[in-house]
Each structure stands twice: as structure tokens, then as C-alpha cells.
């Protein structure tokens, strides 16, 4: 442990700061495809019984009309958020009739590209720009790739911790800047070690053969319709999934929030010749918001993002520029096919330890060479993370993946102990112990367990369907009580009413709305740091 980590742990263990450990916020966004009882993609519209995908606070869609996204409120205890996530799954299963929630990150059998429905959000300008953005994704990357699902983990430390840390370290400047740069430091540490998350929690070592749509690949055949890599942990996070050559090097390793914002600001303003050739309209209809490297900031496929809650119509960069970083969003977690809601409480407890460790640990500035090394380690972990004797690079030198992982878990032990003292239990230490066991015995890793189950069922799709049915049975066996049902009914109707109100009250043309929306990227980010 560094002296900085020791000092910060001692500060947080002291009486004045200890209660603040329980006041940070956690939230989960879980994506899942709707599928038919036989595992085919459900191409039906978003169920009206679930409310408006545009305005419902907990149930929306991601890329496709078929790709549900469940969002929990931000809670102080992740266990509470998981209970809320479970309730949404039970509601959705009840409202979907015979349809199922797909249990995997990688999709099962998909129809032809043209038959994968793009999400529809109504005719308001906000709804239409969300739809056109997704048309652009289809044009740029194809529809199949947009059907991949994941878990996003939103994490913040208590706002009251930042002034204590800043005062203890004698750092000058505004509290907002100190907080923002501390989150950026967390992100730097995350990028140095996020390969560990892929090894411990990656759960997509195989996929349906048709997903590749004839693209060249180096996968091996497991069964007639299943491809895999023998030691892969997360093909979702490999170059077959959410990696995009156009975005390679788009946001180089950054050491300040301004660096990050300027990189994204350039990308949403810089034309990309192939996209220019496509144009923004075809046959008089909008097909992408613009012809730039990114249509909007959210098109950047990052494993982690600095975030700030935004207002309706506000751009993420506007919010970060005006008010700084409020929380971080971890985006590299696979859906856990063995958990009905896609993530277990033990995994979430470990993430809390890992992210607090990343926030408190020394985080020196990074370089292009560091970034290349981090990316190479991540790629090795997703493609070969279970290979016996696999070595990564640390500071240019070879290091055993298992040895480095064990070292990191040991360094996290005091962080787990601190959180357990605050929780008055052992859940965080238990979560660490479970990860040590997985590093010692690779057969315990989710990717190994998934691969074994795929072999037992005969194919990726058969395993995915079996798990989807199993989870549906679990949800149906625990129906919501009357109060919960009524609360969701009210939420759904309120969201439908709000969408209707938006559509009735809007003014001006959609063309003008897009122009105004694009103009809201803070221009100063392309030339100079954000004004204070």
C-alpha cells in the first residue's frame, strides 16, 4: 500500500468520517433482450404495459425496441438497489406474457439486419433524436452489434468526503475541481487494473455463430452453431463486440477532466469521411444526427465514464463542463447468466471494494505508452484470461496474471475491512475471499462455468434459453404484492402521460432542434480548458 492509501484509510476510519462511508450512492443499469419462448428475438413493440421507454424512470430501451434496460434509483446500499432491480424483473416478466428476458450478454439467434427493430420513442423532438441516433448506430456498426447487453454500475463517494480529503491533503483550488480530478484519478487506476474485472466476472466466452454475419474471425467451433475461444472470458468486450476501430485512440490516456472533455468535444465535431459519404438523410429521412466521428458523446464505447446527472435535453459534456464529475459509470461488466438479475450481491460488494480502492490509491499521471500497455492487458484478459501461466505487462515488465491479481486483492483487504466495519458484517471480506478462490481455481470463473454449461446443453443458444426459462420461473414464483404492482402501474401511466404531453407541447421543426442540440457542445472545449 502507498502512504497515500494508508493515510486516507486512517482518515476514513476516524469517527468524523466513518459515517460518510455509507453515504455514497450506487445504481445499476441492466440490459436484456426480449426473446420468444424458443429464444428468437422478439420483434414486437415495447409493451405499453411497461410504460413509455422515453420517460419511464426505471424501464427504457437501449438500441433496439427489443433491448430492455432496467434502471435502479441511486441507493446508499447496493443491496437495496438489487432488491429494486429484482422487482422490475418480476414486473416485466409478468407483463411480457410468453416472452422471456435473455440471460446472456451476447444475443441468441438474430433475424436479418433489417428485421432487428430500432427503438422508437414517439414523435417529440427528444424522442426523435434518440431514434435517429440509433439509426446512425445501425448505419455505422450494424444492428447485430447493438444487441449486445451488459451491466452498468454507477458509483459515487459521499459528497461530504471530498472536503475532508482535500483539507487533509492541503490541496488548493475549488472543491468541485478537486472532486472531479479525484474521480479522473479513480478512472486512471481503473484502466490500469480493469483486466482483473474481465477475468473475475467475464461471462461471455462463446457466441451464436450467426452473430458474426460472415465477418472474419479467429474463433473456434464448439458446436454446429456455437463459436468460442478456449480461454476467453468476455468476447463481448473483445474486438468482436463493443470495440470499434474508428474510435481507436479517440480519447487518449487522460490526466485531467479537461483532457477528456476536449477529446470528446473534438470527436463530436470532426467529420469522418465514410460517414460524410453516407450523409445525414436518405430518401428525405434522417439516418444519423451528423457525419462526425461521434454523433453524440454516448457513442464513445468506454469501459468507464465520468458522469453527471443531466437535465432533459442537456448534453453530457455541458453538464460536466458546468458542474463537474458527480459519479462514475463502469460499463465493462458482462451480464451474469447465473444470476436472475444479471449481477449478484457478492459481485456488487466486490465492485464497491475495488472502486473505493481505485479512488483512494495513488494515481500517477499516465502516458500513451501506459495506455497502450493497459489496452493490451485488457485484450489479453478478455481473449485468453483463463490461459494457464498467462502473463501481462506492468511497467514494461512481464508479470503473472494470477500473481498480480492476488497482489491487488491483498491490497484491497484493508478497504474491505473498513467497509465491513461500517456495515457491521463480513460481506466485503467474503467477496474478496471468493475472488481469491477464483484466481486459484480457474474452473470457478464465470466464463469457465458458462463454457461448461454450454457444452452440457450442446450450444450457446440452448444454454441461454435454459437460463432464461429458469430465471422466468423464479420471477413468476415471487409475484409483486399489491402495493408494488400499484406503484409500477402508476409509474407506467405517468410516463405515458408525460410522453403525450411532450408531443402535444413541442414547437419548432425537428431540423432546427438538431441544429440547436449540436450547437450545445461547449465550443471552448476544443480550444481551451472549461471556464470556471
TrEMBL record:
Coiled coil segments of this chain: none
Which reaction does this chain catalyze?
A: L-cysteine + L-glutamate + ATP = gamma-L-glutamyl-L-cysteine + ADP + phosphate + H(+)
What is the recorded name of this protein? Answer: Glutamate--cysteine ligase
- Key words, A-Z: ATP-binding, Glutathione biosynthesis, Ligase, Nucleotide-binding
Which InterPro entries does the entry link to? Answer: Gln_synth/guanido_kin_cat_dom, Glu_cys_ligase, Glut_cys_ligase
Sample GO molecular function, one term: ligase activity
Q: In which pathway does it act?
A: Sulfur metabolism; glutathione biosynthesis; glutathione from L-cysteine and L-glutamate: step 1/2
Which protein family is named in the record? Answer: Belongs to the glutamate--cysteine ligase type 1 family. Type 1 subfamily.
* SUPFAM superfamilies tied to this protein: Glutamine synthetase/guanido kinase (SSF55931)
Where does the Glutamate--cysteine ligase domain lie?
10-378
TM stretches of this protein: none
Domain of life of the organism encoding this protein: Bacteria
Q: What is its EC number?
A: 6.3.2.2
Amino acid at each position: 500500500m502507498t502512504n497515500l492509501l494508508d493515510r486516507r484509510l486512517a482518515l476514513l476510519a476516524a469517527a468524523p468520517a466513518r459515517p460518510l462511508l455509507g453515504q455514497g450512492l450506487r445504481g445499476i443499469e441492466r440490459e436484456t433482450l426480449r426473446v420468444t419462448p424458443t429464444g428468437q428475438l422478439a420483434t414486437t413493440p415495447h409493451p405499453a404495459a411497461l410504460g413509455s421507454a422515453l420517460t419511464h424512470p426505471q424501464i427504457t430501451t437501449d438500441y433496439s425496441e427489443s433491448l430492455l434496460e432496467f434502471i435502479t434509483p441511486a441507493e446508499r446500499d447496493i443491496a437495496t438497489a438489487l432488491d429494486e432491480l429484482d422487482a422490475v424483473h418480476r414486473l416485466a416478466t409478468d407483463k411480457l406474457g410468453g416472452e422471456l428476458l435473455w440471460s446472456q450478454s451476447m444475443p441468441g439467434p438474430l433475424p436479418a439486419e433489417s428485421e432487428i427493430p430500432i427503438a422508437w420513442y414517439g414523435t417529440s423532438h427528444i424522442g426523435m433524436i434518440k431514434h435517429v441516433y440509433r439509426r446512425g448506430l445501425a448505419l455505422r456498426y450494424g444492428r447485430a452489434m447493438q444487441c449486445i447487453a451488459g451491466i452498468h454500475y454507477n458509483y459515487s463517494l459521499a459528497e461530504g468526503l471530498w472536503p475532508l480529503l482535500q483539507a487533509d491533503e492541503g490541496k488548493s483550488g475549488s472543491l468541485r475541481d478537486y472532486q472531479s480530478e479525484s474521480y479522473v484519478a479513480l478512472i486512471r487506476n481503473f484502466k490500469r487494473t480493469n483486466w482483473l474485472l474481465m477475468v473475475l466476472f467475464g461471462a461471455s466466452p462463446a457466441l451464436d455463430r450467426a452473430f458474426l454475419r460472415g465477418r472474419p474471425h479467429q474463433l473456434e467451433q464448439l458446436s454446429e452453431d456455437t463459436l468460442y475461444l478456449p480461454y476467453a472470458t468476455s468476447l463481448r468486450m473483445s474486438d468482436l463486440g463493443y470495440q470499434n476501430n474508428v474510435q481507436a485512440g479517440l480519447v487518449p490516456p487522460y490526466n485531467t477532466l479537461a483532457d477528456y472533455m476536449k477529446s470528446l468535444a473534438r470527436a463530436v465535431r470532426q467529420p469522418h469521411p465514410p460517414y460524410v459519404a453516407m450523409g445525414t438523410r436518405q430518401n428525405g429521412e434522417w439516418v444519423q444526427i451528423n457525419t462526425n466521428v461521434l454523433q453524440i458523446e454516448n457513442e464513445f464505447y468506454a469501459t468507464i465514464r465520468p458522469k453527471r446527472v443531466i437535465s432533459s435535453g442537456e448534453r453530457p459534456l455541458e453538464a460536466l463542463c458546468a458542474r463537474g464529475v458527480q459519479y462514475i459509470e463502469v460499463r465493462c461488466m458482462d451480464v451474469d447468466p447465473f444470476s436472475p438479475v444479471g449481477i449478484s450481491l457478492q459481485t456488487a460488494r466486490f465492485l464497491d471494494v475495488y472502486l473505493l480502492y481505485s479512488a483512494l490509491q495513488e494515481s500517477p499521471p499516465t502516458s500513451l505508452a501506459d495506455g497502450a500497455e493497459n489496452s493490451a492487458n485488457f485484450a489479453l484478459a478478455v481473449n485468453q484470461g483463463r490461459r494457464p501461466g498467462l502473463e501481462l505487462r506492468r511497467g514494461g515488465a512481464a508479470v503473472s496474471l494470477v500473481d498480480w491479481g492476488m497482489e491487488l486483492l491483498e491490497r484491497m483487504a484493508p478497504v474491505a475491512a473498513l467497509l465491513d466495519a461500517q456495515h457491521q458484517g463480513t460481506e466485503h471480506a467474503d467477496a474478496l475471499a471468493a475472488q481469491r478462490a477464483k484466481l486459484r481455481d480457474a474452473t470457478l470463473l464465470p466464463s469457465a462455468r458458462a463454457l461448461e454449461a454450454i457444452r452440457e446443453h450442446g450450444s450457446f443458444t440452448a444454454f441461454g434459453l435454459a437460463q432464461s426459462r429458469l430465471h422466468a420461473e423464479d420471477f413468476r414464483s415471487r409475484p409483486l404484492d399489491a402495493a408494488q404492482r400499484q406503484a409500477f402501474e402508476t409509474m407506467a401511466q405517468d410516463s405515458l402521460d408525460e410522453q403525450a404531453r411532450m408531443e402535444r407541447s413541442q414547437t419548432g421543426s425537428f431540423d432546427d432542434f438538431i441544429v440547436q442540440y449540436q450547437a450545445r457542445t461547449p465550443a471552448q472545449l476544443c480550444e481551451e480548458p472549461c471556464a470556471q
